[in-house]
Amino acid sequence: MQDILTLAGENLLSPMILCFALGLFAALARSELTVPEAAAKALSIYLLFAIGFKGGVAVADHGVDASLISALIGGIILSFGLPFVAFALLRGMTRLSATDAAATAAHYGSISIVTFVTATSVLASRDIVAEGYMVAVAAAMEAPAIISALWLVSRNAPSGQGSRMDSELWREILLNGSIVLLVGSFVIGFITGNDGMARIESFIVSPFQGVLCLFLLDMGLVAGRGLRGARGVLSLGAVAFGLMMPVVGAAFGLAMAIALGLSVGGVVLLMTLAASASYIAVPAAMRVALPEANPSVYLTLSLGVTFPFNLTLGIPAYVAVAQALTGA
C-alpha cells in the first residue's frame, strides 16, 4: 500500500496530471479557458501517430512471433468479455435501461488510447521497459467490445429497441479515424523500422511529453464540463460503477498478462488497457448503432469518472501491483 501511495503521489505531481487537473479546475470554476477544437484535433492526431509509429518500429525490431500473436488474441478476448462483466454490474448497481447499460458496457470493453499513452510515459519515467507490440494490442481492443454490446442489446432490450448492424455501423467501427490513424502509423513504423525512426525521431520523441500535457489540459476541460452538466443524470450507483469497473478490468488484465508471460511493463499496459474506457471510438459507433442510448451517461462515466481515476490513482496502483507480483 505504501508503494501505491508513493507512486500515486509522484504521478499526481507530474506535469501531465497537473495539466489535467488545471483543465478540470478551470471547467468546474467556469473559467473562459478553452482549447480550440482544431488545436485539440491536431494534438490527438499527433499522439496517435507517434504512439502507433513507435509501436510499429518496436515490433519490426522484435519480429512477428508467437508472443505477439498470443498477446493480440488475449487482448481481443478481454475486449469481447469485459462488456458482459460491466453490463452485469450496471444492471445490479443502477437502474439504467438495458440499452443504456449495454452502451456504457461497450466503453469499458474498449480502450482509452490517452490512458494508454499516459501509462507508457509513466513507465518511461521509471525506466520500465514494455513490449513494443502492446500498441498493436491496444488497436485490436478498440472494436470487439462494440459487437458484444450490440449482442447484449439484442438479447436484453425491449422489442423495438434493437441495435443496428448495417454497413454504416461497420464502416464507423472499422474506419473510425482514431483506429485508422493508429493502425496506419503502426504499419508505417513497421515497414520503415529503425531507419524511419532515425529520420523523424526529433518530431515524435522529444515533443511528445509537452504535446501530451496540452492534450490532457483539454481533456480536463472536457471532463469538467461533463461533470458539471451531469447533475441529476448519474446516480450514486453509476458513479460507484465508474470507480469499481477499472479495478475489475485491471484484475482481468492482470490475469491475462500473467498467463501470457508479459514483462512488468507489459503487465502494466495490459492492466491499463483493460481498466480504461473509450471516449472516442465507441461513442462514435454508439451514435450509429444505439441512437436511443443516453450519451450523458456513458460519456460522463468514461471521461468524467473513470478517466481521472485511472490517471491519478489507477496507473500508479497497476505499476505497484505488477512490480509486486513479478518480483521486479
What does this structure look like?
There is one protein chain. The chain is mainly alpha-helical and 328 residues long. The protein is 79% helix and 0% strand. It has 15 helices and no strands. The protein has helices spanning 2-12, 15-28, 37-62, 66-93, 98-109, 113-125, 134-140, 144-156, 167-174, 177-204, 208-228, 236-260, 264-275, 281-289, 295-326. Helix 4 (66-93) runs parallel beside helix 8 (144-156), helix 4 (66-93) packs antiparallel against helix 12 and helix 13 (264-275) packs antiparallel against helix 15 (295-326). The longest helix is centred in the C-terminal third of the chain and has 32 residues, at 295-326. 51% of the residues are buried. The mean pLDDT is 85.
Give the DSSP E fraction (strand runs of 2 or more residues): under 5%
- Strand/helix succession: HHHHHHHHHHHHHHH
Question: Could you give the distance between the termini?
Answer: 16 Å
Protein structure class: mainly alpha
Rg from Cα? 19 Å
The low-confidence runs, each spanning 5 or more residues with pLDDT under 50, are none
Overall mean confidence score, pLDDT: 85
Shape: globular
Strands, count: 0
Main sheet summary = none
Helix content: over 70%
- Number of helix segments? 15
Descriptive key words:
mainly alpha, 15 helices
Short summary:
The protein is built from 15 helices and no strands. By secondary structure, it is mainly alpha-helical. α4 packs across α7 and α5 packs parallel to α15.
